[in-house]
Recover the amino acids of this structure.
């Protein structure tokens, strides 16, 4: 145990309390960059964004800028977006296609595979000789793909992505594996800034179904399906069950494991949220049989609910929004939002999806606006001396954790619960206070065992 | 008949009468004032039934790709028709649109109004805009951009048939866009 910042005193997952210093303290944030973002599997890009050799996409791992590239042999590599000469940011484009990356400062050129290949005036300037083989770009040492998503990890000792995901893979498959051919990103990436700590956003998508009826009350009211509602030529949410999903008596589930979380309500029909376009809801119904063959009925029917893969990758089924909460200091995030569609979907459905995705969860989205507003206002209050010390309540459903016998895996609870939030913060503490992955895994396992003894 | 679909600025001034210029500008100011005064239902009345209202993201591309006409893909921020614009207004009216609760104050500035074409009863124009928004005691946001509008004559006034907005930000620096630009 190495708890130099005493974070174990700030989080008590057993009792369900959190001290808000974890959201504002600079020292804690700096340690997060090292121990959480420096060791976790982080989403980089979707394979569909890099179809050809030389294609690149620039993003961040924690606060480190990285370039993800498609190599000549078809493989994918990622590098720190930092010139090895004097640290200039090498590539300033969002994405593109190139044979090499040339630094704007003194012109060093790096190949697609990261090697230093061009040094201007090399003969004249480096009379002492420069060993170019030693000055290639810093490579992200661990890189792997999972059903189209590309992940990187700075830590050579980290477990495999599959071990890191655990049962979260089962929930992720329900989003990525509905149809033959997998998924792709439709359109560009929404990017915007929210002045809040990254954990507010990540935790909400991990665990918080509870906010939806109230925070999103306005959107739920005005986007309800009506015959006049023909925004995409077909009424929004055409033909879907109208009553709130939690009132249908079918129940639901929240999942928690290794810091990840997911929750949804069971439905009779494959119903996406009412705010998707009519063409989209129709598509989900038409393709249900294929999804059911691939995934079974529980996951095929699931077209709503929230998910976070620890620490910062979140998505919503049905609305098809996938986002990364890039940390920018303790008090800010940059949100990057991707719209995910089945590759096999017709173009008209992809276009309708792109429109309904922006309408609900773009920066001007009917639902998105209210989420960001909550986090910003919580963060502002935390400037207060007293506010910083006032514990938060994370006790919903405490003690009702179970392991189900119907094949739905992991530690579970009812949909309205904070089991996944407690698991998220416990995992965070375990990473913040452990020097090795063996310790992290042992501590998380111990916590989960206590939770569902027997 | 002039081309109403050109995106780039023409290299010569398109000549119109001072009366038309004046009439169009006054209409744009009226529309802006209705929004600043939160008279959104009246504002909706100035939009045609087939109105298109769009804003897409911006991207950063390297010069080599720009020359080859390759650009990172964009996506919509707004992709609205009359129905969804009306629903956005309805959302504000619920009293539960928390981002606009309590209500913000806005001020819209419209400049560089250039009529760029006319066809039948429609005029095409471009203008620059600035919108200042004050909210939640001390939040201030400013949105700068340009837009291309098509207006259709409606008796002795106009209605908006299309508004293609551009916003001069790559990564938006506001937490959300809760107003019309
Ligand atoms: S910093 Fe890149 S070439 Fe000098
Ligand atoms: Fe939400």
């Amino acid at each position: 145990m190495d708890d130099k910042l005493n974070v174990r005193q700030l989080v008590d997952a057993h009792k369900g309390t959190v001290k808000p210093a974890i959201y504002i303290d600079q020292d804690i944030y700096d340690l997060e960059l090292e121990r959480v973002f420096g060791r976790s599997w982080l989403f980089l890009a979707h394979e569909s964004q890099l179809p050809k050799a030389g294609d690149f996409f620039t993003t961040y791992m924690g606060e480190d800028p990285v370039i993800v590239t498609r190599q000549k042999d078809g493989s994918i590599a990622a590098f720190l977006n930092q010139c090895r000469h004097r640290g200039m940011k090498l590539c300033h484009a969002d994405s593109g296609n190139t044979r090499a990356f040339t630094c704007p400062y003194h012109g060093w050129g790096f190949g697609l595979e990261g090697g230093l290949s061009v040094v201007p005036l090399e003969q004249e300037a480096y009379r002492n000789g420069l060993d170019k083989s030693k000055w290639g770009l810093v490579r992200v040492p661990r890189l792997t793909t999972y059903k189209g998503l590309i992940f990187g990890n700075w830590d050579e000792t980290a477990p495999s992505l599959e071990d890191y995901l655990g049962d979260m893979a089962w929930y992720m498959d329900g989003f990525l594996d509905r149809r033959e051919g997998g998924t792709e990103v439709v359109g560009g990436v929404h990017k915007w800034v929210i002045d809040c700590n990254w954990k507010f956003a990540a935790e909400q998508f991990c665990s918080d179904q509870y906010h939806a009826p109230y925070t999103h009350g306005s959107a739920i009211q005005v986007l309800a399906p009506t015959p006049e509602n023909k925004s995409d030529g077909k009424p929004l949410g055409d033909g879907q069950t109208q009553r709130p999903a939690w009132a249908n008596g079918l129940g639901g589930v929240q999942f928690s494991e290794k810091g990840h979380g997911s929750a949804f309500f069971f439905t009779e029909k494959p119903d996406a949220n009412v705010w998707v376009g009519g063409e989209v809801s129709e598509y989900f119904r038409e393709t249900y049989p294929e999804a059911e063959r691939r995934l079974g009925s529980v996951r095929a029917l699931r077209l709503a609910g929230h998910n976070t893969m620890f620490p910062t990758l979140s998505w919503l089924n049905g609305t098809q929004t996938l986002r990364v909460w890039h940390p920018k200091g303790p008090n800010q995030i940059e949100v990057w939002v991707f719209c995910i569609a089945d590759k096999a979907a017709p173009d008209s459905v992809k276009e309708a999806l792109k429109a309904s995705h922006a309408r609900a969860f773009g920066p001007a989205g009917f639902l998105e606006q209210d989420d960001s507003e909550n986090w910003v206002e919580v963060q502002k209050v935390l400037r207060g001396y007293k506010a910083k010390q006032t514990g938060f309540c994370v006790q919903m459903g405490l003690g009702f954790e179970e392991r189900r016998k119907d094949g739905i895996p992991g530690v579970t609870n009812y949909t309205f619960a904070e089991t996944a939030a407690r698991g998220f913060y416990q995992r965070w503490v375990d990473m913040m206070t452990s020097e090795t992955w063996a310790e992290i895994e042992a501590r998380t396992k111990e916590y989960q065992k206590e939770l569902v003894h027997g | 008949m002039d081309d109403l679909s050109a995106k780039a600025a023409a290299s010569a001034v398109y000549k119109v009468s001072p009366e038309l210029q004046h009439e169009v500008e006054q209409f744009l100011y009226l529309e802006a004032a209705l929004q600043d005064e939160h008279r959104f239902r009246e504002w909706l009345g100035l939009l045609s039934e087939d109105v298109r209202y769009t804003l897409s993201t911006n991207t950063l591309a390297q010069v080599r790709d720009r020359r080859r006409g390759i650009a990172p893909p964009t996506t919509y921020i707004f992709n609205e028709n009359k129905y969804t614009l009306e629903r956005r207004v309805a959302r504000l009216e619920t009293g539960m649109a928390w981002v606009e609760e309590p209500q913000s104050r806005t001020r819209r500035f419209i400049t560089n109004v250039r009529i760029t074409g006319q066809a039948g009863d429609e005029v095409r124009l471009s203008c620059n805009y600035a919108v200042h928004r004050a909210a939640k005691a001390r939040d201030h946001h400013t949105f700068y951009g340009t837009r291309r509008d098509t207006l259709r004559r409606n008796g002795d006034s106009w209605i908006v048939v299309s508004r293609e907005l551009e916003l001069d930000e790559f990564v938006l620096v506001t937490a959300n866009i809760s107003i019309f630009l």
About this structure: The first strand of chain A starts at residue 11 and ends at 12.
